[in-house]
Specification:
CATH superfamily: Aldolase class I
Number of helices: 11
Order of helices and strands: EEHHEHEHEHHEHEHEHEHEH
Structural class: alpha/beta
Shape: globular
CATH architecture: Alpha-Beta Barrel
Radius of gyration: 17 Å
Distance between the termini: 41 Å
Number of strands: 10
CATH topology: TIM Barrel
Number of domains: 1
CATH class: Alpha Beta
Length: about 280
């Protein structure tokens, strides 16, 4: 049986722009439920400036309370200050981000791509590439292929896993095919992060299948489909973990858990969505 890894982003990407603000205890409960369901890779928070993303202001405390879990716990870091905060609570799996889209880089990091790459390289000096995932945001937008390819190459020098992100849900199967063609010859593990776009017929599982057909064996997902990027207008919900698990079951693919394992976590998410 084929194996696919689920990288759960609900506690970070799912909650960062949520209308309902969860307490530290509620976030810890959510992460524990995800762990108990069998998820082995969980992004638990983001060490960004609290004024930029208020819902992530307590990531330090959340991380401290779940750090004993025997799974890979990732955190998003935008800069040196974020990295230092993350290290203080014992984090050692770091997610960084960049994009071939200039406007995204300016909105998020206040600088162009070349400067971002240079800053990231300095910031990550001495940290194993195996402990770094690189999100390439807006990877499937209509951007010049040579610029996308250059961004992917730069990302491959920063981390051992590069995550192709459909940040605002623009991707269709032909876009997946096009961008996967740009990854040829780049020696990293490729992963995929997909969002819905409610302005057109949703085919997100077709995109999962297309990525899988091109060799993608790690997909980001968010329990309950929570989330979207607060700095990219129009960003739809994330691919839901339960949909990804259902797709895997239909295709006889092992993801380390099954649909019934997610029941308690989905209940938890549905309860706070009502508030």
């Amino acid at each position: 049986m084929e194996r696919v890894t689920i990288y759960e982003v609900g506690p970070r990407d799912g909650l960062q722009s949520a209308a309902v603000k969860l307490t530290v205890d509620e976030k810890v409960e959510m992460i524990n439920l995800l762990h108990d369901a069998g998820l082995k890779n969980i992004e638990v928070g983001s060490f960004v400036h609290p004024q930029r993303v208020p819902n992530m202001a307590d990531s330090d405390e959340v991380y401290k309370q779940v750090s004993n879990l025997k799974v890979d716990l990732g955190v998003l870091i935008p800069n040196q200050k974020g990295l230092e905060r993350a290290k203080l609570v014992g984090a050692n799996k770091f997610n960084i981000f960049l994009s071939p889209l200039d406007s995204f880089n300016q909105r998020n990091l206040g600088m162009g791509l070349d400067d971002i790459i240079s800053k990231h390289r300095d910031m990550l000096y001495g940290i194993s590439k195996d402990n770094i995932r690189v999100y390439v945001s807006h990877a499937f937008d209509n951007i010049a292929p040579e610029k996308v390819r250059a961004t992917l190459l730069a990302a491959s020098h920063l981390g051992s896993t590069v995550v192709l992100c459909d940040t605002v849900g623009v991707a269709e199967v032909n876009d997946i095919n096009r961008v996967m063609g740009l990854t040829k010859g780049v020696g990293v593990k490729w992963a995929m992060h997909l969002h819905h776009n409610y302005q057109k017929h949703d085919k997100i599982l077709d995109n999962v299948q297309a990525g899988y057909n091109h060799g993608i064996r790690e997909f980001d997902s968010s329990i309950g489909g929570l989330g979207g990027c607060p700095f990219s207008p129009g960003s739809g919900a994330n691919l839901s973990t339960e949909d990804l698990v259902g797709w895997a079951e239909e295709n006889n693919i092992d993801v380390g858990l099954n649909s019934k394992d997610l029941f308690k976590t989905i209940q938890f998410v549905n309860n706070f969505k009502k508030h």
